[in-house]
Design goal:
heterodimer; A: 161 residues; alpha+beta; 5 strands; B: 388 residues; 3-stranded antiparallel beta sheet; 9 helices; 12% strand; flat; UBC-like protein (chain A)
């Protein structure tokens, strides 16, 4: 059943590369193996991130798709993480589908689209509270952080009620 | 799976079962990984249990911690535990504890503990057991020459030493030598180890507040057993559908006959048995519609309001945690605890058996929480676990 891992990723890769191209704004940069894939994410249209491009890195192990891949924005000399209330400057992302809400029916492309839409719907470009503390102490793998998720439909609950 | 296949034996819960291959064999009963195929009569793993597990492999013990104990014994005791090893260093009095001088570090920590199954467990750090532990035969006379502290007494001795606050005068502090290993035992904690009640309470509080409340609950064995299983047949309407996990269409033409066993969840969503079982072991929900086979924790419920957050302020020495938004969007940075948290929650959640629940005891062998400096070495039972 480890074969599910490689079969799933082969199938997903084939779809991304040939059959059904990724949605606009999402481009595969690297998928040389079944361990690390990198996508370029761009938010098109009217958004706070107009003109910016980000790298989204996926890391898999053989527990995929039974557990989520480790997903983070690429932060290196050439790329930075988007300034977003759910994205830390080390690239780690607080999104429930990457943790407790993961389901094996989700896919790499589903994650890309979710992250893209998370950026597209952002109303205020600001860092997460406590970013510096987190970045200083964060583990290399974001899956080792236990995020407590906010209600996605309401990123600023103080405005509600 | 055919009945011709041999049964497997779980060393953790003593169950005989057929393991779940996900992909490494996991005990179908407690989800543990210490399982062995029952192959030949000469080497039957059940005999091992019957004769009593006298000795846990010290190779599993982190060398750093082993070295720590070794140094500890040298620093705390009036002399080295193993005069032979210390060579000509003058005037080494007899070893203070941990009697064996059979080579290696000469240091040995033994903890005896009643196991959930009723038998006694024997947990050993250090050198191989001296002969006296290997049975009634061949007791070396010299072994009784030195007074020894072993077993529970030894553990108590260590714990009482370690639970003391760090003295201001570092030169008198026997643990100063270990600062290079990432900090001495402060506040009753040393890495993932705790040595007093206060530190343990702190960790429990952190875990209660932060780690387990929203994690998925796996399906119980009982629920899983009762699921509808069917072998695909010619003309079955399921053949036109896809398994949502592997994303492949059900087919009669598979090399592996196991792939023709279809499990249909109560919400009518079909899956290959091999595709759905690993998932249900980590989350008792339908991957497609999130139908709950077992009740799941409610989390990020809309409208919970900020009140929920104010009930869990960081405790005194909790590592920094931060709010992402004014509401309950926080992360916790207890990373060195994350694996302890994850493993214990993983184990407890898999636990429809008391034996697996008690495995979170710190002195139980063969649990991943045993190795604080390699907490990631096998996270197999953690949903979302990652092996670096």
């Amino acid at each position: 059943m480890s074969t599910v891992y490689t079969r799933r990723l082969s199938k997903e890769l084939a779809e991304i590369q040939t059959e059904t191209k990724p949605p606009i704004g999402i481009r595969l940069l690297k998928a040389d193996d079944f361990e690390t894939w990198i996508f370029e994410i761009e938010v098109l249209g009217d958004s706070l991130y107009r003109g910016e491009r980000f790298g989204l890195k996926f890391r898999f192990d053989n527990s995929y798709p039974f557990s989520a891949p480790a997903v983070q924005f690429v932060v290196d000399s050439g790329m930075k993480a988007p300034v977003h209330p759910h994205v830390y400057t080390n690239g780690h992302i607080c999104a429930s589908i990457l943790g407790d809400d993961w389901s094996p029916t989700l896919s790499v492309m589903a994650v890309c689209i979710t992250i893209q839409s998370m950026l597209a719907s952002c109303k205020r470009k600001e860092l997460p509270e406590g970013n510096d503390t987190y970045v200083r102490t964060a583990p290399d793998n974001p899956k080792k952080t236990h995020f407590v998720y906010d209600d996605d439909t309401s990123p600023f609950p103080s405005n509600r009620v | 799976m055919s009945s011709r296949e041999p049964m497997w034996y779980c060393h953790e819960c003593q169950a005989e079962m057929r393991p779940l291959m996900v992909p490494d064999p996991h005990c179908a009963s407690c989800n543990g990984t210490f399982v062995e195929r029952i192959e030949d009569e000469v080497n039957d793993p059940r005999d091992f249990q019957a004769s009593g597990p006298a000795y846990e492999d010290p190779a599993g013990v982190d060398p750093g911690f082993n070295g720590f104990l070794m140094n500890l014994s040298q620093l705390l005791g009036p002399g080295g535990p193993n005069p032979a090893r210390r060579g000509s260093s003058a005037g080494s009095p007899p070893a203070p504890f941990g009697g064996s001088t059979m080579g290696g570090s000469g240091f040995r920590l033994e903890i005896n503990r009643s196991s959930p199954g009723g038998g006694n467990r024997h947990f050993v750090i250090g050198d191989p057991p001296p002969l006296r532990n290997r049975g009634a035969t061949s007791l070396p006379e010299g072994d009784n020459a030195n007074p020894q502290i072993a077993g529970p007494l030894m553990a108590q001795y260590l714990i009482s030493l370690l639970s003391q606050r760090r003295p201001a005068n570092v030169r008198d502090n026997p643990f100063a030598a270990f600062d290079f290993m990432g900090g001495g035992p402060e506040e009753g904690r040393w890495g993932d180890y705790v040595f007093n009640q206060e530190a343990l309470d702190q960790i429990i509080t952190q875990l209660m507040e932060n780690s387990n409340s929203t994690r998925p609950v796996p399906a119980t064995e009982e629920v899983i057993e009762k699921l509808d299983r069917q072998v695909l047949e010619e003309g079955s309407p399921t053949l036109e559908r896809d398994c949502a996990v592997c994303k492949e269409q059900f087919s009669l033409h598979t090399e592996d006959p196991d792939e023709q066993v279809v499990v249909t969840l109560p919400c009518k969503h079909p899956f290959h048995e091999g595709c759905i079982m690993p998932w249900l072991k980590s989350s008792g929900t339908c991957p497609v519609c999130r139908h709950q086979l077992v009740p799941q924790p409610e989390h990020h419920t809309p409208g919970a309001g900020p009140a929920g957050d104010s009930t869990s302020p960081p405790t005194g020495t909790t590592p920094p945690s931060a709010s992402i938004s004014p509401n309950n969007n926080r992360f916790t940075s207890i990373f060195d605890l994350m694996n302890a948290a994850s493993s214990s929650s993983g184990l407890t959640r898999s636990g429809n058996q008391s034996s697996s629940q008690t495995r979170t005891q710190p002195s139980q062998p063969s649990s991943s929480s045993q190795h604080p400096n390699h907490p990631d070495s096998h996270d197999d039972d953690i949903p979302g676990g990652w092996v670096d």
